[in-house]
Amino acid sequence: xxxxxxxxxxxxxxxxxxxxxxxxxxxxxxxxxxxxxxxxxxxxxxxxxxxxxxxxxxxxxxxxxxxxxxxxxxxxxxxxxxxxxxxxxxxxxxxxxxxxxxxxxxxxxxxxxxxxxxxxxxxxxxxxxxxxxxxxxxxxxxxxxxxxxxxxxxxxxxxxxxxxxxxxxxxxxxxxxxxxxxxxxxxxxxxxxxxxxxxxxxxxxxxxxxxxxxxxxxxxxxxxxxxxxxxxxxxxxxxxxxxxxxxxxxxxxxxxxxxxxxxxxxxxxxxxxxxxxxxxxxxxx
Length: 285
Known about the structure:
Layout: H1 4-15, H2 21-36, H3 43-46, H4 53-67, H5 72-76, E1 78-81, E2 84-87, H6 97-110, E3 117-122, H7 128-136, E4 140-146, H8 149-161, E5 167-170, E6 185-190, E7 195-196, H9 197-200, H10 205-210, E8 217-218, H11 225-237, E9 238-247, H12 253-263, E10 267-272, E11 278-284
Parallel strand pairs: 3-4, 3-6, 4-5, 6-9, 7-8
Antiparallel strand pairs: 1-2, 9-11, 10-11
Helix pairs in contact: 1-2, 1-4, 2-4, 6-7, 11-12
């Protein structure tokens, strides 16, 4: 009978060509906490405990899936984001820590307001942005849109799980002129597709094989396509004192800022994440 520590060594040995050792340890901890229902505070003590054959088998199955490139979040079908838990599938992006920083920025800037604020999240995916904003800005009315009906089905589940009331719409934002009427928003936020096909060649297989390409990639000759259309949408549907927030491609921060200035935004600010990478941009009239 093997201990949990022995199984962890097996994970490290088998996965070292796919991940760094620290990443493997983190992945293993996520799997162990999920399947063995160990409190996080007891994890290190549990490494010396013998495992039942049933637990060995379930961790072995997880290891096989990890070797295929499948992300641990999809194996356990959930991921944490901004203190909440979200269901994830192959129809949704796995929520990233960088996006938490965007959500945190919006909450800090909008929370002082006592009146109801209208928010729209464009390309909502799992709903992590929209739901986290609604949870932390209870005075907000939040609309979340996505072109994928499958992603919206997951987002609706997540809204129920996290006890939030969100209006979901299945919309192609590239056709916004035919969809939206006179709605006005205090906050427009989007984490749109922004990775070029050239950049895809350098990405990890677990992203390329298991996350939705429509939510990730844009053509090399139109890397700012969604920023262009969403900025045009904002020109008509952002309130006079409202704010447009984007997560951006770090390699195109200057170009994105220039696009927004050319569109007519007068206050445009590029913001860096905790790793000092240009990751967010906000714009106002």
